[in-house]
Specification:
Blueprint: H1 5-23, H2 31-43, H3 48-55, H4 59-71, E1 75-79, E2 87-91, H5 93-115, H6 119-151
Antiparallel strand pairs: 1-2
């Protein structure tokens, strides 16, 4: 029996998780910490409140992540230029270098994976994956709304 599309997507997700675990083994970086670094790489210096929203975690969770990344030398807190009650979290220069390398590797892996697909099929594949991701986001959001309604 041919595996379902969902089975293949779950396999891909698992393979990405294993590859990330291998890549960060011994670095002290967890998936959550790498995600926060990735967000900072793309968003630039941000408040912890903004980071919590962008990472879809609680403010308490983001405080723990930032504390750990500050301790390991990946981020630093700096005064907010216009709000003296707020601080900004930003990548350290060494973390910015690491994230630039990670972004380069990300682009290389993207190209490698697309090379496994016939050139004439690539546009359809990308449209299909985008449609699946968008629909899954909608389903997850609707499920969360249903859960929140029934919990109230």
């Amino acid at each position: 029996m041919e595996p379902l599309l969902l089975d293949r997507l779950l396999l891909i997700g698992d393979l990405f998780q294993r590859d990330m675990a291998r890549a960060f083994d011994g670095t002290g970086l967890t998936t959550a910490r790498v995600h926060l670094l990735w967000v900072l790489q793309h968003a630039g210096p941000s408040t912890q409140r903004d980071l919590a929203r962008l990472c879809d975690v609680t403010p308490r969770n983001i405080t723990g992540l930032v504390d750990g990344l500050e301790e390991s030398g990946h981020v630093r807190r700096t005064p907010h230029p216009t709000d003296r009650r707020a601080v900004l979290v930003e990548l350290t220069p060494s973390a910015a270098t690491t994230m630039a390398e990670m972004q380069r590797e990300h682009a290389e892996l993207n190209a490698t994976l697309l090379a496994a697909v016939a050139p004439k099929d690539r546009a359809a594949l990308e449209r299909g994956i985008a449609a699946i991701a968008s629909h899954l986001e909608t389903l997850v959001a609707e499920a969360a709304e249903d859960r929140d309604r029934t919990a109230s």
